[in-house]
Amino acid sequence: QVQLVESGGGLVQAGGSLGLSCAASGTTFPLATMAWYRQAPGKQREVVARITSNGGTDYIDSVKGRFTISRDNAKNTIYLQMNSLKPEDTGVYYCYAGALWMQNEYHYWGQGTQVTVSS
């Protein structure tokens, strides 16, 4: 059974930086797209950044130029470097991994890690 474990959240002042990591374990087939989502209080979960198995990335407009997603396939781990943080970046950040294997789709989620940016 695949498990995703996030780490690295915390409290930071506006303008500061934080790094998140997400390690996948228990995989028996390759993971495809992995991503970071976030959910702010009272809002729907939204995708922040995605990365394909080949390293292709995309970001929501509000974090472009400030956040960087990266991936280490050998370690089944993704990272999110967050710079110039703003209070509106506050939320629970969730790691996501998808896979397509033997014509079946799989979707996995981490437990979430809190990021709080104070003004």
Give an account of the 3D structure.
The protein is mainly β. The chain has strands at residues 3-7, 10-13, 18-25, 34-39, 46-51, 57-59, 67-72, 77-82, 91-101, 104-109, 113-118. A hairpin with a 6-residue loop joins strand 4 and strand 5 (46-51). The termini are far apart.
Strand coverage percent = over 45%
Please give the largest β-sheet.
Answer: 7 strands, mixed
Number of helices, counting only DSSP H or I runs of 4 residues or more: 0
Shape: elongated
Which percent bin holds the helix content? under 10%
Estimated radius of gyration: 14 Å
Termini separation? 40 Å
Q: What average pLDDT do the residues reach? A: 96
Structural class based on helices, strands and sheet pairing: mainly beta
Low-confidence stretches: none
Order of helices and strands: EEEEEEEEEEE
Strand tally, please? 11
What are the SSEs and their pairings?
Layout: E1 3-7, E2 10-13, E3 18-25, E4 34-39, E5 46-51, E6 57-59, E7 67-72, E8 77-82, E9 91-101, E10 104-109, E11 113-118
What can be said about this structure in brief?
Helices cover 0% and strands 56% of the residues.
Structural features:
119 residues; 0% helix; four-stranded antiparallel beta sheet; mainly beta; seven-stranded mixed beta sheet; 11 strands; 56% strand
